[in-house]
Design brief:
Helices cover 43% and strands 15% of the residues. The protein is built from 17 helices and 13 strands. The strands form four sheets. Strands 4-5-8-3-9 form a five-stranded parallel β-sheet, sandwiched between helices. The chain has a four-stranded mixed β-sheet with strand order 10-11-12-13. It is flat, with a radius of gyration of 27 Å. The termini are far apart. The structure holds adenosine-5'-triphosphate and magnesium ion.
Amino acid sequence: MTTQTNHSCDFCGKSKEDVEKLIVGEHAAICNDCIDLCSEILNDEKDKKVLNNKNTLNPTLIKDYLDDYVIGQDDAKIALSVAVSQHFKRINNPSKDIKLEKTNVLMLGPTGCGKTMLARKIAEYLDLPFAICDATGITEAGYVGDDVESILTRLINEADGDIEKASRGIVYIDEIDKIARKGESVSITRDVSGEGVQQALLKMIEGSIMRIPSTSKRKHPGSDMQEVDTSSILFICGGAFVGLDKIIEKRMDTRSVGFHSVTVDKTVVNNPYRMATTKDLIQYGLIPEFVGRFGLITNVDELTIENLVQVLKEPKNSIVKQYQYIFELDGINLMFENDALSQIAEKAKDLKTNARGLKNIIEKILLPYQFEAMDLVERGLTKIIIDKNSASGKGEALMEFNKKTVDAKST
Ligand SMILES: Nc1ncnc2c1ncn2[C@@H]1O[C@H](COP(=O)(O)OP(=O)(O)OP(=O)(O)O)[C@@H](O)[C@H]1O
Ligand SMILES: [Mg+2]
């Protein structure tokens, strides 16, 4: 067979001179424009597959994935899994007769218990554009800081500039409690009450056509603004709402006075956030219209000592596993005794930082051994065992040198 040299694209017929690049194979040629087009078609197909993927439609599978990384927090996991799967169903099956309203989610709960982590893990699981923003940086138009539209710009960036794709995405706004209306708000760069930001977020969260500065590389001449329809974007907002528990407890105390006292479940007493009502949130400083935009209000619970021990060792990329990996790189087998893990968990509990403080505590314990690791390996070290004593800072870790266990003190 004779090899024939192609000088034009076999797809669109354009000649080599009329295109930027012509890739010539043995029997056919294709130009750069046709390659782009093919790639778009393939990506669209991929998007459709993702939208119909049963892994993203089945809430139990979404929760299974979250379970691999986040300890406890079943209420929030179930609420998020359902909201996300509903979101997929909704954007995938627009009905002419029944307008499916979106269910934005508000997630409350103490610091360091997994709110942001849940959002990040959901983002990893999905193949949808997902932007994580922080409400503290957002200001009302006219003030120093990012305006609410910057959230959409971020989402569009996550969608590689594809507005269509971005308008089906998910936005997580963290620290939403920081824009509650508060008398003592001190920032002079932000509107004093925070209410302005809530007002500005309202329209976007509810669903409207927003105009934002164009980020597109292929700008239409003369248009530096682009329109984004937010009605199919799912918004998840999270916040620690420090002090909300007091509002809830006070309300419940008043209700339980006298004959009509209600017996309150013990788990509720431990986790008052579970009982949060829209009224409590309004009293906290969210404006009623803002609270009203969230179809689902869920919470994360304070982590118990047992939970904190689980956080240390169970998730797929748990802190213990991370450090074991780091030490393994130097050829050291790092072990934690159960007593030591409980000790670390108790310390985190005392510091009231929940899981957020765990890494810091472990880092402090392991720092001297990390510093000396390579020298110790040269002297034959094979194993470091962190026991209760070394975890509490009262002694040094146990070390094994060439299979012989010796107390670190005696070396
Ligand atoms: N339930 C949990 N399971 C596993 N790890 C957790 C859990 N909660 C928190 N962590 C760990 O603690 C860190 C901090 O958690 P995260 O950022 O999700 O807290 P948060 O609830 O968003 O707190 P804040 O209100 O202060 O923003 C995470 O990166 C993770 O390592
Ligand atoms: Mg957070």
